[in-house]
C-alpha cells in the first residue's frame, strides 16, 4: 500500500522513459489518490531531481513504482534486532532469512550484502505484513540509488518562494 512519505524507484510497469532522470533515481510519494475516485490507484511523486508527476499504483493493473524504503513513513519493527548491524527496532523494510533461525536484516544491511547471498529472504513492509519471498541476491544486478543522499548536490525545488 502506498502512503505519503514512501521512497520509491521505477517499478515493474515503468513506461515513462527517463521522466525520473534514469534508472536508480529516487523520489518520495507526496500525494495518494482519493478512494472512490478515478485517481484512487495513482500517486504523485516528488523526484529528488525536482520534478513532480503522477504514476499508476494499481490503476488498470499497472504499477509504475517500487518501494525502496518506508522508514520515512514511520514504519518500524520495534521488537526486531538487525543481525547485521545489531540495531534494535528495524526502521523501514525488514528482511528475514528463510534458511537461518531468527535471522533478520534492516534495509541497509540487506542491500549491503550482509549474510549469505545464496539464502532466500522474506521482505516485510510493515510489522503485521505477510512476508513476500525474495529471490537469492547471489548474481543479482545492483543499481545505485541516486537522489538526495550524503554528498548530493541539492537545488531549490518547485515550491521554493
Automatic annotation (TrEMBL):
Domain of life of the source: Eukaryota
InterPro entries from the UniProt entry: Mib_Herc2, Mib_Herc2_sf, Znf_ZZ, Znf_ZZ_sf
Pathway(s) the chain acts in: Protein modification; protein ubiquitination
GO annotations of cellular component type: cytoplasm
SUPFAM superfamilies with a match to the protein in the record: Mib/herc2 domain-like, RING/U-box
GO biological process, one term: protein ubiquitination
Domain MIB/HERC2: 1-71, 140-161
Location of the protein in the cell: Cytoplasm
Keywords annotated in UniProt: Cytoplasm, Metal-binding, Repeat, Ubl conjugation pathway, Zinc, Zinc-finger
GO MF term set: ubiquitin-protein transferase activity; zinc ion binding
Domain ZZ-type as annotated: residue spans: 77-129
Coiled-coil ranges (or none): none
UniProt-recorded name of the protein: ZZ-type domain-containing protein
Amino acid at each position: 500500500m502506498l502512503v505519503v512519505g514512501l521512497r520509491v524507484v521505477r517499478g515493474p510497469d515503468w513506461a515513462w522513459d527517463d521522466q525520473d532522470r534514469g534508472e536508480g533515481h529516487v523520489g518520495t510519494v507526496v500525494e495518494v489518490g482519493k478512494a472512490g475516485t478515478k485517481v484512487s490507484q495513482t500517486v504523485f511523486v516528488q523526484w529528488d531531481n525536482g520534478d513532480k508527476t503522477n504514476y499508476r499504483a494499481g490503476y488498470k493493473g499497472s504499477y509504475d513504482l517500487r518501494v525502496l524504503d518506508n522508514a520515512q513513513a514511520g514504519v518500524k519493527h520495534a521488537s526486531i534486532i538487525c543481525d547485521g548491524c545489531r540495531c534494535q527496532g528495524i526502521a523501514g523494510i525488514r528482511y528475514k532469512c528463510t534458511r537461518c533461525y531468527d535471522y533478520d536484516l534492516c534495509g541497509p544491511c540487506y542491500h549491503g550484502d550482509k549474510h549469505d547471498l545464496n539464502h532466500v529472504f522474506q521482505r516485510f513492509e510493515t510489522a503485521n505484513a505477510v512476508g513476500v519471498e525474495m529471490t537469492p541476491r547471489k548474481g543479482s544486478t545492483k543499481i545505485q540509488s541516486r537522489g538526495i543522499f550524503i554528498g548530493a548536490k541539492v537545488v531549490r525545488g518547485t515550491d521554493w518562494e
